[in-house]
Input
Amino acid sequence: MAARPEGDAEGLCGPGAGGLALLGLAPSAPSCPHGPALLFVKTSQGKEEGRRFYACSACRDRRDCNFFQWEDEKVSEARLAAREEYNRNHQPSFTHRQNVERYENFVLLPLSKRRFCQECQQLLLPAEWEMHSDHQFQSDISTAQLKSPSQLLYPLENKKTNAQYLFADRSCQFLLDLIIDLGFRRVLCVGTPRLHEKIQSKASQEDDFRVRSLLLDIDFRYSQFYTEDEFCHYNMFNHYFFGGEASSETCRKFLYQDDGERVIMVTDPPFGGLVGALASSFKKLMSMWKKTEKEDHNNQEMPVFWIFPYFFESRILEYFPSFSMMDYQVDYDNHALYKYGKTGRRQSPVRIFTNLTPSTIVLPVEEGYRFCTICQRYVSSGNQHCEICNSCTSKDGRRWKHCLLCKKCVKPSWFHCNNCNCCALQNHTCEKTVAGCFVCGKAGHKRSTCPNLSGTRTAYRGNGKQRKKTLKRVKMGICKRSVMKHAIFSRKKVKNKKKKT
Output
């Protein structure tokens, strides 16, 4: 039996449903360029577990990383050597130490000689100009730009891998103000480069600014701008430090609360990532904090802000029962939908999940948030307290309504369907036979918002025959519907002709 991450047995399918299950990290897992692979198993409805296989931890799309290996597969020495060579060739051109030295030389250059290659996303020294002569580059890179690398670098917007949707200044400033007001002086920024950037910038400009931060991110481009004490190349899906024990030790030292400096972890993972894999890594970071030489950690959790869409609430609470969801809407600069100020269903669905006491998270009153004295937390203006549920029940910012038959509050656009015996959109298609989500079999959400959809797609792509069969069935279904529509339309035409004559 392969080892699983502590507390992690994420099922990508519910009981009795077919699909995939994530087993987690195995001790002897093979590696791809993104570190140790994760172990999956294919399951069939009503049958025993199928064959297990390894796939890339970071990339849910095989076009980004096509690593695949059956667990019981015997890999030849030649293939292992080829894989090691491939992994080496897909590592960054420079080490972190080399990038730090390059940065030190770069800032000494006059403004006219500071160039940034936009194609290679690299700071260029004069000796390298010739190699990049046919590339587009940006000139006159100022110190202010070097202090704001998230605005200089192109965001990597693959939602299943990097998903660098960067905090808008409103949300970034709110998070920093909240962190300071709560008394935290060290911030572990896991996949939050803009928050780290803001803290670093203020620390360099203001002598009395006492907050410090460490960025853990899979995007190695940030190593060009930060030292080894400010940035660690890290994969949050398998808790892998690319820099080895040295990077892990950097993180461990940062988590040590010296002179009473309180630490908080702020993380903003890709929304297409597997919640179970993320939770496992976050638990390991929390465990790392707990093992620092402080006796008062014994019965505590490291404070965390996990920023994620509200419809993942049940999944997050599975792994962290102590967490609760705040109503604050987090918005992003480079995301078309997740913007502040939109109303109705167009509001940002991204929220803050935290293990801190909800009453201590003060939300801005000027943005319409108010304090509910019964729930003892700040809620959005549209989130009205339900006396039956005895809670402020809205998740999406709109006022929800209570359904006596469902015994819970539901979205305002939903109505109770006697066929389905639950609330749904008025024009929905009744599916009595389907107990829950088509992908995982669980109730409470549809296939389109299933948190396990991305993982299912990944391994599903590996089974070409099954995919072809399904596509064939889909095409046949479309053809049948087209024929039926054509027949109905033809009958109507004949009837109309008879009426005219």
Summary: The first strand starts at residue 19 and ends at 24. The mean pLDDT is 83. The chain has eleven helices and 25 strands. The radius of gyration is 26 Å.
